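SAMPLE LOG
Freezer: B-3
Tube label: C17
Construct: single chain, 180 aa
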Amino acid sequence: MREEKRDRQALIAVGGNLPQRCGENIGMSPLETCMKAVETLRVLPGVCVQDVSFWYESAPVPPSGQPPYVNGVIKVATQLSPEELLAALHNIEATQGRLRSVPDAARTLDLDIIDMDGLIRSAPAPDPVLPHPRACQRAFVLLPLRDVAPDWKDPVSGRDLASLLVDVAGQEISRLDTLI
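STRUCTURE (predicted):
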């Protein structure tokens, strides 16, 4: 018997710190690239964008001398499986000029599933690992997450956002005045 497709809530982190230099998107700033990713998700079959956070500018984590990042979080309802959603996000990244090299490298676009209906999946399960294993250590995820899901709790630890934000209070981040 086939499993019926049902809507799941997913929280997707969006970020980037390099301007685009390929294809039709030459010269797009990191903020423009992040906004374009949201617009691409709005028309992706099986995905319904429900909310988009404010945009934030943050220092790279870990510190690296890279340019600052633009970050946000998108709340979606989706009928896609975690694997299908991750594949779609990787396709959007590639279309926006993302080149995968070394971990924590500068990038035009990074899309990560932070949480999907509180599902807990860890290695050696297939990608994606859920919730995102480093989300709770990063202000650039937690602050925009609070904008779209203020009652969110880490499915692993059970900690709420207020508690988690205390742990990242020293990380450099500021809210931009741009909404989409």
